[in-house]
Amino acid sequence: MFWVIIRKKCIFQPFEVFAEVHRILKDGGSFVVSFSNRMFPTKAIKAWRMSDDVGHIYIATYYFQESADWKLVTVSDVTNESVSGHTDPLYIIHGIK
């Protein structure tokens, strides 16, 4: 098992990166992408800057769908609410080769 850590919002060729991750994974291997709603506007693509959390999920799952023949792609909302009631959204997209 090995880890691949990629800052998704800094990827300039996401389809190529996702396809390469798919290529190097063994059958049944996992690729996990996580993100929140925080970003550096100068490093994010326009579609990311212009969309909300649902749009971000759509963009990230689209990268999976169009990059390779992933066996399964799931989306999880793992947002925790703090004691103060403030939430910091966190989403995980898990692709299985």
Task: Walk me through what this model shows.
The protein is an alpha+beta fold and 97 residues long. It has one domain: Vaccinia Virus protein VP39 (Rossmann fold, 3-Layer(aba) Sandwich). Helix content is 31%, strand content 19%. It has three helices and three strands, in the order αβααββ. The chain has helices at 14-24, 46-49, 53-67; strands at 30-35, 72-77, 91-96. Strands 1-3-2 form a three-stranded antiparallel sheet, covered by helices on one side. Helix 1 crosses helix 3. The longest helix is centred in the middle third of the chain and has 15 residues, at 53-67. The chain is globular and about 45 Å long. 13% of the residues are buried.
- Overall geometric form: globular
- The residue fraction in helices comes out at 25-40%
For the sheet with most strands, the description reads: 3 strands, antiparallel
Question: Mean pLDDT score, rounded?
Answer: 84
Number of strands: 3
Strand content: 15-25%
Put the structure in a nutshell.
The protein is α+β, with helices and mostly antiparallel strands and 97 residues long. It is built from 3 helices and 3 strands, in the order αβααββ. The protein has a single domain, classed as Vaccinia Virus protein VP39 (Rossmann fold, 3-Layer(aba) Sandwich), CATH 3.40.50.
Write a concise keyword list for the protein shown above.
single chain, 97 residues, alpha+beta, Rossmann fold, three-stranded antiparallel sheet, 3 strands, globular
